[in-house]
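Predict the assembly for these two chains.
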Amino acid sequence: MNPRLDAIFKATRELFELPEGLVYLDGNSLGPLPKASREHVRHVIDEQWSSQLIKGWNDSGWIDLPQKVGDKIAKLVGAPAGSVIATDSTSVNLFKVLSAALEMQAHHTAQNPESAARRVVLSDTGNFPNDLYVAQGLLRALGDGPHGDGYELRMVEPEEVADAIDETVAVLMLTQTDYRTGRLHDMADLTRRAHEVGVLTVWDLAHSAGALPVHLDVSGADFAIGCGYKYLNGGPGAPAFVYVRPEHAAKARPALVGWMGHETPFAFDLDYRPAPTTDRMLVGTPPILAMASLDAALDVWDGVDLADVRERSIELSELFIAEVETLCPELELASPRDPQARASQVSFRFPEGYAVMQALIARDVIGDFRAPDMMRFGFTPLYLTPEEVVRAARVLETVLRDKLWDSPEYKRKSKVT
Amino acid sequence: MNPRLDAIFKATRELFELPEGLVYLDGNSLGPLPKASREHVRHVIDEQWSSQLIKGWNDSGWIDLPQKVGDKIAKLVGAPAGSVIATDSTSVNLFKVLSAALEMQAHHTAQNPESAARRVVLSDTGNFPNDLYVAQGLLRALGDGPHGDGYELRMVEPEEVADAIDETVAVLMLTQTDYRTGRLHDMADLTRRAHEVGVLTVWDLAHSAGALPVHLDVSGADFAIGCGYKYLNGGPGAPAFVYVRPEHAAKARPALVGWMGHETPFAFDLDYRPAPTTDRMLVGTPPILAMASLDAALDVWDGVDLADVRERSIELSELFIAEVETLCPELELASPRDPQARASQVSFRFPEGYAVMQALIARDVIGDFRAPDMMRFGFTPLYLTPEEVVRAARVLETVLRDKLWDSPEYKRKSKVT
């Protein structure tokens, strides 16, 4: 462990509420409560909504929160100010940017009659299934119909993506970090290959933003979306974010639009005219209580260098792998062994993984499970210590050695796994 | 005033935080803070997110909140349990149901080759412009393209809607209550006319839900959406709701879908299979802090009869009109004079309406303004008294008589009007 980092992350840990004795390895699914979020939500309720009522939109700047919060996120994902907006859910944002990217390609084809229409959205089987659902819903509506002349969602294995990029592809839609294993795609390399053959890229940063340095700008990514409630600690179901490469901001036309993305929302014109900026990715009224929590949670990152986060994240995950492989040889590492090839989580396979995870949780070691057999553990340097990582491995050893998981109570499935 | 109602609404007023001395006539834009919402949001932060972390999804039932909150709303809009879901914004929900309705019509045409394709979304110029923007964005993506063979948004004057319903129309998309004047469309009559010629209906209840009895079920409406932060007092940007007529629930296929609407969200299948219920209108992870506020706010309605709300709302608005017309003859009533023809707001026209409204607000009488010349006043019996209504009219008289509005500070436009 790099001792320089101890002091940095001892200080950031103080910014969170964490139950005594709990080892929380699920910040990749839901970040814990930043103390500042609790205070700020109270403030917004008690001093803004309560007393300012409708005036809060102007007097407390509620109307500008999507941009203000977006700018805080932009710094964490290597994006320029003004290119990121906090709004809606990752799914809704993915729908917007995917539809906008397809429209840009259709427009390009219409302007260049010699070029063949691009009808393929290329993705991989390691993508978060939700992203595939969003694409399926959109393409179904746009016409992936019975005549076979419509759009197609083409899925390949993750390692086959690079070779599958060709001139039939309109959009390459990928999640940078595999939600199951933490495996990283090379965003810059795949984006470069995509651009060489005229393909636009849409990146989901759900398990990347706040987990490691992300270089949206230098990678050349065209669009990106990401999550506010995982490594950004915005609270359950926090607003998500959307990035539009500045050169596309005035051209992108999502299928889903609304008054908050209008050039002059309060003129109440009958015709939609998109704002000339990333604001056009806004649709409805921003959710202020949820946005307030995320807004305050992002201040945890003030003065934190993501290179330090990455260094400590690798230290923690390497430590965990070493401990678990020594203590629990029956588990199979599902994550890449090379720390540069994975983000900030480690997963192990075990046939009874679900029950093992329930037994762990009952012993105050919190990870999660992904079907069919994947136990996931997230590493979040802002509030996770090396001592806790060692403790988690020891509890895991006990659960396995004593078959503590072999109990009906741990095999009963929860609604959310 | 009906004295029986005094006691009922004296009790409900106690459930809200209202600044001393303020006359709040803008609950149709943002409802005030219910005391229970403050307490419940604190509880969710301090006792759920803080200590349960990821376990809150199961242990505190977060995952079921869209349905639980939806069922509370269903009671207020005349809908059966299970037919309403709280989620996303009104705009996003409108996009879902409009796309689903168009898909149902396209499917019907494909099944009945003898019938002509229906390509028209019929709406009116009194619709909230945002709803028109949502339709424009969707139709643009579906192909209202240059060949003229695509979809069309047809707008007529509000009073011409009934006669414009014909067999070219796929969907009749209307807002029940005109956001400017409070004029009500006859939902049951227009829906009946629509169904007679095979048209599906989509109703926006933004200024209706919680303002007056709404009869979704008996009106035959096919789809509806509505707002959580106006008369339902859920907080700024609260989640909205979506209604699907039960007979359509297993058929409706929105263009925008996601994992929360999947038949088995946590199986992580690669293919989308919609839930067989209204759940298919869910997309991303529900925003729990915002949902908690709305959840608690809806308990204000426990034991409240919407017929009583309607009776008192008419008493208050009639009182306001009588006072203002006596005291301020320079104002022109923009709302229907017949109280049965308007919802729970009253609007007056005045060329300098914006400045007058700013002068009123500076004197603790809060209404709002809609371009070009409309001053809006909302009447919310849950927390508004007859005395306050009289006081508002008196302050308005003073502002006009002494030309207090004629000041540069009141003419400077705010970002949100």
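Chain A has two domains: 3-30+305-411, 55-301. The two ends of chain A are 32 Å apart (CA to CA).
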